[in-house]
Q: What sequence folds into this?
C-alpha cells in the first residue's frame, strides 16, 4: 500500500510557462533528467496558512518518482520509476483529485508499462495547528502492464502536509508505493518504493 506524506511547494509566476513534459516516450534516464530539472525549481519558502487561496480550483502538473525500498520488498525486481502526475485542487471545498500516468521504469521488459492510476477525492484541513495541513486521500488500485508482466499499483494516503511559495504555487508530496506482481516471473511478490511528487500550478 502507498502512503503519501504531502508537502506543497512553489515557484514564481514566470515558472507557469512550462511545468513538465509528457514522458510517455521517454527512456528512464530522460525521465530522471526531466524530474531533476522540475525538482530544482521548487526550493522555495513555506506558504503560511493565511496566505493560501480560500476559493477557486487549481490544476497542478508535474512528476512522481519512486526508488527501491528494501524493507517492504519481497520481489527480486528492484524497481525505480518516474511518472507524470496531474492534481486538481478545489480550495472552496478543500478537496483534491489526481491521476498518475506515463510510468517509466528501470526494469527490463517493463520500461514503459501502460496504465493510469486514478486518485480518489482527498481532503485537506487547516485546523491542525501552526502551518501544517491535515490531509487524507484514497488512491484507487490500478494495473500497470507491459508484455507478460502485470503489476497492481496500490496506494492510500493519510498524513500532514504544507504549502510552499507564493499562494501555494507548487506541491511536494513524499511517497511510498508498492507494485504487487500478478503476472510474469515475479508473480506473487511485491516491489516496494519510496519517492516524491513535485507539481506546479498551471
A:
Amino acid at each position: 500500500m502507498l502512503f503519501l506524506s504531502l508537502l506543497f511547494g512553489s515557484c514564481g509566476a514566470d515558472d507557469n510557462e512550462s511545468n513538465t513534459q509528457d514522458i510517455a516516450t521517454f527512456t528512464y534516464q530522460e525521465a530522471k533528467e526531466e524530474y531533476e530539472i522540475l525538482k530544482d525549481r521548487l526550493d522555495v519558502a513555506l506558504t503560511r496558512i493565511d496566505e493560501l487561496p480560500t476559493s477557486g480550483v487549481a490544476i497542478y502538473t508535474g512528476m512522481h518518482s519512486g526508488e527501491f525500498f528494501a524493507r517492504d520488498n519481497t520481489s527480486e525486481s528492484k524497481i525505480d520509476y518516474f511518472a507524470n502526475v496531474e492534481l486538481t485542487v478545489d480550495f472552496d471545498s478543500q478537496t483534491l483529485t489526481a491521476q498518475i500516468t506515463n510510468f517509466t521504469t528501470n526494469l527490463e521488459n517493463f520500461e514503459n508499462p501502460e496504465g493510469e492510476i486514478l486518485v480518489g477525492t482527498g481532503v485537506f484541513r487547516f485546523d491542525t495547528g501552526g502551518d501544517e495541513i491535515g490531509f487524507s486521500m484514497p488512491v484507487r488500485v490500478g494495473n500497470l502492464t507491459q508484455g507478460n508482466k502485470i503489476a497492481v499499483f496500490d496506494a492510500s494516503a493519510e498524513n500532514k502536509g504544507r504549502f510552499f511559495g507564493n499562494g501555494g504555487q507548487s506541491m511536494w508530496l513524499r511517497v511510498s508505493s508498492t507494485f504487487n506482481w500478478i503476472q510474469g516471473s515475479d508473480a506473487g511478490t511485491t516491489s516496494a518504493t519510496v519517492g516524491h511528487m513535485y507539481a506546479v500550478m498551471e
In short: The chain has one helix and eleven strands. Helices lie at 28-40. The radius of gyration is 17 Å. Residues 3-47+55-201 form one domain.
